[in-house]
Amino acid sequence: MTEDKNFINAFHSAPPPDWALRQHKSILQRGWDFVGAPLRMVVLPDHQSERLRLTSLRAERLRVTLPELQGRVLDVGCGDNMLLRLYRQRKPSDAAKVSVGADVFPWSSDILQITNSATLPFPDGSFDTISYLACLNHIPERADALKEANRLLRPGGRVIATMIESFVGKIGHALWWYSEDKERKMHPDELMGLDVSEMKALLRHAGLTVTKHQKFGYGLNNLFVAEKPLS
Ligand SMILES: C[S@@+](CC[C@H](N)C(=O)[O-])C[C@H]1O[C@@H](n2cnc3c(N)ncnc32)[C@H](O)[C@@H]1O
After folding, report:
1. Is the CB of 16 under 6 A from ligand 1?
2. What is the pTM of this model?
3. Structural domains of the chain, ranges and CATH numbers in brackets
4. What is the CB-side half-sphere exposure of residue 60 using CA atoms within 13 A?
C-alpha cells in the first residue's frame, strides 16, 4: 500500500484544531458550517475543511465520541490513531496510556497492526471501552468482531460506534475522492454504510445492550453506545 506511487494518505495526522472539537458550536460556527456544508461534507478532505475554519467530518465524529470514552480504550479500525491521541491529551490517565489503537492497515507507527478484528491478542475483560468510528461497514468480519468486543470488555464496559446509513454511504463513497478506501484494496464484503436497524441488530447479536442512539451531522451520521451486561 505505502509503496504505491498513487498513495495520497487520507490521514494527514495533524489533529483537528481545538475549536473544531468544542462540544457546543457557536451560532457563527453553525452558520459557517451550514454555508460550507457542500465543501466540508463532500468536496474537501478533513484537513482542508479545517483550514477554512469549517468543522470537518472527522471532527464531527471525534467531538461526539471523545466524551463517551472511559478507562482503557481499544479503538478498532483506528486509522491514524487520532481518537486515542486526543483522548490521552484531553483525559490523561494510566488507563489512557495503555489504551490501544488497532487497524489492519499500518496507517500510523503507534498502532497495533492486526489481521482480523475477530481474534485480538488480549485476555478477557481487558478494556473499559471499545470503539469503532466509521469502520464497522469496512470490517468484513463485523459480527464476529463485536462478539470479540464482548469478550474483551469488562462487565459494564461499553462499545462506542459511529456509522452512516447505507444510502448516505453509497453517495458519499462515490464522491469522497480522498477517502482512505481509495488508497487500499477493498475487501468484497466491505459495505458503504449500515442502517440504524442493522447496527442495533449487530450490537444485540453480540450480547450487548444498546443504551444510546444519537443522530449528528444534520442527521446523516449516528452514534451508538452499547453496554456489556453486568452478569
Ligand atoms: C473510514 S476509516 C475510519 C478511520 C478512523 N476510525 C476514523 O474515524 O477516522 C475505516 C478504517 O477501517 C479500517 N479497516 C478496514 N478493514 C478493517 C478490519 N477488517 N479490521 C479493522 N479495521 C479495518 C481501515 O483501515 C480504516 O482505517
Report:
1. no
2. 0.94
3. 58-227 (3.40.50.150)
4. 26
